């Protein structure tokens, strides 16, 4: 259970970190100044959530026995005898030890892709954080309560942009419809619990994500309808594997950027 709990918290932390990193790539490149600032602030929100979750994950890791620590990761490059913290977990794990869903690591491509990716994620996370407040884990409850406020704003922002693009010009409609079509196959992984997730759900510590599916589809369908966009089939085939450490090549490029300084100059401090 201890290792499963660590992996579960890392799922949430890695989602926030990777999406925050992706969104931060827009800093200084937004379509207008106001939205450049808005999306940069959103990236910072995700990073703040990631920090809280990584610190919890580090505490869980430090409490593991030596055998459990070896079981937890394939390649965690922390020195033996050292304790983990909110920085070592993002910087010293390789891609196969990351537990984020595949959706958040997909490339920005253009503004429509970025908005659509956030919209699919945000609409799930609002439901998720609401449900997580019923967890038996007090620390997860506290993180959920704080993060829900931010997630609601993120969803409001991304939903409005979906409608603005979909019901806008012919070109904006085409671009966002293409984004919906391409990213839809990555949206369903959130409802497929990992092995660690199943154990946590059984213990009353995690959210039964399958129970959120109908409400998610209903909300997404409403927004896509208002945006005059066509919603793909609910039973379409979905990518999966990110929660278990199987990722697309995109994550490797993200980590090459994210981890470069730490890998090039180990244990450096400012």
Which tags fit this structure?
single chain; 0% strand; globular; mainly alpha; 63% helix; 270 residues; Ferritin
Would you spell out the secondary-structure blueprint of this structure?
Blueprint: H1 2-24, H2 33-62, H3 66-72, H4 88-91, H5 111-132, H6 138-166, H7 170-187, H8 195-202, H9 213-226, H10 249-258, H11 260-264
Describe the protein in words.
- With 270 residues, the protein is mainly alpha-helical.
- It has one domain: Ferritin, core subunit, four-helix bundle (Ferritin).
- 63% of the residues lie in helices and 0% in strands.
- The longest helix is centred in the first third of the chain and has 30 residues, at 33-62.
- The protein starts with a helix and ends in a 6-residue tail after the last helix.
- The model has no long low-confidence stretch (mean pLDDT 95).
How many helices? The count is 11
User: What is the rounded Rg?
Assistant: 18 Å
Q: Which superfamily, in CATH terms, is the homologous superfamily? A: Ferritin, core subunit, four-helix bundle
- The domain tally reads 1
Mean pLDDT: 95
Shape: globular
Helix/strand/pairing class, anyone? mainly alpha
Assess the beta-strand content as a share of residues.
under 5%
Measured as a percent range, the helix fraction is: 55-70%
Helix/strand order, N-terminal first? HHHHHHHHHHH
Q: Which architecture per CATH?
A: Up-down Bundle
- Give a short account of the largest sheet: none
CATH topology: Ferritin
Uncertain runs with pLDDT below 50, 5 residues or more?
A: none
* N→C terminal distance: 37 Å
Chain oligomer state: single chain
Q: Identify the CATH class.
A: Mainly Alpha
**Count of DSSP E strands?**
0
């Amino acid at each position: 259970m201890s290792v499963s709990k660590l992996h579960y918290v890392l799922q949430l932390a890695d989602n926030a970190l990777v999406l925050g990193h992706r969104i931060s790539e827009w800093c200084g490149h937004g379509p207008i100044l106001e939205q450049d600032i808005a999306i940069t602030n959103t990236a910072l929100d995700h990073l703040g959530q990631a920090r809280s979750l990584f610190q919890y994950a580090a505490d869980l890791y430090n409490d593991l026995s030596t055998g459990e620590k070896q079981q937890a990761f394939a390649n965690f490059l922390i020195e033996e005898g050292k304790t983990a913290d909110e920085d070592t977990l993002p910087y010293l794990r390789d891609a196969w030890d990351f537990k984020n869903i595949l959706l958040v690591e997909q490339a920005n491509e253009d503004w429509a892709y970025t908005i659509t990716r956030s919209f699919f994620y945000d609409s799930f996370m609002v439901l998720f954080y609401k449900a997580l407040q019923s967890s038996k884990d007090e620390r997860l409850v506290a993180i959920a309560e704080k993060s829900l406020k931010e997630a609601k704003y993120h969803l409001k922002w991304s939903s409005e942009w979906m409608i603005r693009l979909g019901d806008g010009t012919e070109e904006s409609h085409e671009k966002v419809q293409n984004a919906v079509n391409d990213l839809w196959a990555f949206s369903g992984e959130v409802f497929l619990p990992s092995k660690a997730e199943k154990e946590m759900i059984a213990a009353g510590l995690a959210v039964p994500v399958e129970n959120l599916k109908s409400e998610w589809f209903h909300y997404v369908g409403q927004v896509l309808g208002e945006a005059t966009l066509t919603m793909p089939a609910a039973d379409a085939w979905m990518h999966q594997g990110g929660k278990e450490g199987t990722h697309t090549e995109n994550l490797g490029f993200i980590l090459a950027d994210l981890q470069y300084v730490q890998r090039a100059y180990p244990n450096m401090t400012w």
